Each structure stands twice: as structure tokens, then as C-alpha cells.
Amino acid sequence: MEYFTLWNGVQMPALGFGTWTLRGQQGRECIRQALAVGYRLLDTARMYENEEAVGQAVKDSGLPRQEVFLTTKLWQPSNSYQKAKADIDRSLQALGTDYVDLLLLHEPYPESAGMYRAMEEACRAGKARAIGVSNFNEEEYNTLVKQCEIRPAVNQVESHIYYPRLALQKAMAAQGTRMQSWAPFTEGRRDLFHEPVLLEIGRAHRKSAAQVALRYLIQNGIAVIPKSVRRARMEENFAVFDFTLTGEELAQIGALQGPDSLFGWP
């Protein structure tokens, strides 16, 4: 496993496991399998309605709490300082822990400043080791940075080979914020798994197109959180730390990028 050091010294795994859509007993089993494979970052959110399943899967795994990096997010129903403060505690209760490793604001909202203030208080109180945002473009990010006291450690956004957003990453990195990708495989909006450039590069390293796509982001300093319900795919996605893309290969993949989001984000 490779790690990225956040601006406050917290070590965040470069590769994590996304839990969106994973609920109930089946979701718990998928998450438990991911932990057995070796994943140590689990990404959830109040929006996903599965914090209980994530927390129970961690408990079922038998792993010490400090070995699992837990991320959760506040969203629109927590749309005030007071609501956000209460919902942070609800998330901790649902997860069965007294702290999360990363607490994010799921999207930019009109009430973002108040919600983020509650997150800052949670961070100071030890309820979150790091805080940040998700789905903020550069303008939205800069607006929040001017208002906050604890700058975001992470901005989790759409990022993949067709829309890596390296300019946004560079701008945030100058202020100490790490980018994390929530859609490294485009969620089916492009057939990345049969992309000729990735397949050709993969053959040179005996890797799949998916592994090359993840490696491209990680080598560019972008953390990734792919999701799968199949253990074989979990293992494949995890095996991206035993090869390195050359400068020429990075350039070939970089030529695939376009100017627009595949999800309609501004």
C-alpha cells in the first residue's frame, strides 16, 4: 500500500474502497471481503444510508480500529451549523466509533460555511482526524478556503483518465489539499476497460486496463476509491503498487483526457 500524507500529517491510503450502494447484510459481506483483501480505507456517507453496515463490517473484520481509515460525509439535510453538529455525532454512533479519519462536506451548499464550522469544531474535539470537501470546483473551493479556519485536507471529486482535472489538483495542492477520485472507472459512462491505449500499456506490465487507469491517477498524486462487489475485481484493483508507468505511458494516457465532466458537474 502507498500512502499520501495530508497537510496535517495524517497518513491516508492512496487506494480505498467505495461503499456507495452497499447496504444490509450483502453490503457488510462485500466490505468485510474488501478488508480481507487488504483495503484499509472505507468511504461512506450519510447519503449512502450504510454507515451502520460499514461500522459493523469493520467490527466483524476483527481489525483494530486504528488500522482502518474511515471517511464519511455530511449532505444537504445537515444544512446548518446545528444540524451538522448533531449529524456528525449520529454518524459516529452509526459507525460505532468515537472518531472518523476524514469528514467531508458532500457538496457545495448555500449553508456550507456553517456546516463546515461544525466540522472544524469536530476536528478540534478529536471527532475527526481531518476534514475536507467533495465535489467543489476551483471557485467553490477558493470561496470556502477564504471563510474557514481549518483548510480542507481533501477534495473528493470526479476524476478519471478522461477527465483527470490535473489543473484543479495543482491549484489545490498549492494550498495543501489532496485530490481524491470518486469515479476512477467513470461508473460505466465510458468503456474504460476496453480502452486501446490502456490495454496496450497493460500488456507491457502484465496488468489490466483497470489497473493501468488506477495507477495513472495514483502516480499523478490522486487517491482513488474504486468499488466492486466481486472479490476477484477487488483483488485486481488492489494490485496496483507493483508497477510504475513510464513518462511516455503517462503522456499517452494523458492524451485521452477531454475538457468536460462525464457526470454533468459544472
Name the features.
single chain; 266 residues; alpha/beta; TIM Barrel; 8-stranded parallel β-sheet; two-stranded antiparallel sheet; 10 helices; 10 strands; 41% helix; globular
User: Quick one: how many beta strands?
Assistant: 10
The CATH C-level class name of the domain at 3-181: Alpha Beta
Please name the CATH architecture of the domain at 3-181. Answer: Alpha-Beta Barrel
Instruction: Give the quaternary arrangement of the chains.
Output: single chain
Briefly note the structural class of the backbone: alpha/beta
- Straight-line distance between termini: 33 Å
CATH superfamily of the domain at 3-181: NADP-dependent oxidoreductase domain
- SS summary, helix count: 10
- At the fold tier of CATH, the topology name of the domain at 3-181 is TIM Barrel
Q: Given the C-alpha coordinates, what overall shape results?
A: globular
Q: In what order do the strands lie side by side in the largest sheet? A: 3-4-5-6-7-8-9-10
> How can the largest sheet be summarized?
8 strands, parallel
Reading the helices and strands in chain order gives: EEEHEHEHEHEHEHEHHEHH
Q: Which value, in Å, is the CA radius of gyration?
A: 18 Å
Question: Low-confidence parts, pLDDT < 50 over ≥5 residues?
Answer: none
Beta-strand content estimate? 5-15%
Average pLDDT: 97
Helix content: 40-55%
Short description:
This protein is of the alpha/beta class and 266 residues long. It is 41% helix and 13% strand.
Describe the structure.
By secondary structure, this protein is α/β, with parallel strands linked by helices. It has a domain at 3-181: Alpha-Beta Barrel (TIM Barrel). Helix content is 41%, strand content 13%. The protein is built from ten helices and ten strands. It has helices spanning 24-37, 51-61, 81-95, 112-124, 138-147, 166-173, 196-205, 209-219, 231-238, 247-254; strands at 3-5, 11-13, 17-18, 41-43, 69-74, 102-105, 131-134, 154-157, 178-181, 223-224. An eight-stranded parallel beta sheet has the order 3-4-5-6-7-8-9-10, with helices on one face. It has a two-stranded antiparallel sheet with strand order 1-2. Helix 4 (112-124) links the parallel strand 6 and strand 7 (131-134). Helix 1 packs parallel to helix 9 (231-238) and helix 7 packs across helix 8 (209-219). The longest helix is centred in the N-terminal third of the chain and has 15 residues, at 81-95. The protein is globular. The protein starts with a strand and ends in a 12-residue tail after the last helix. The model has no long low-confidence stretch (mean pLDDT 97).
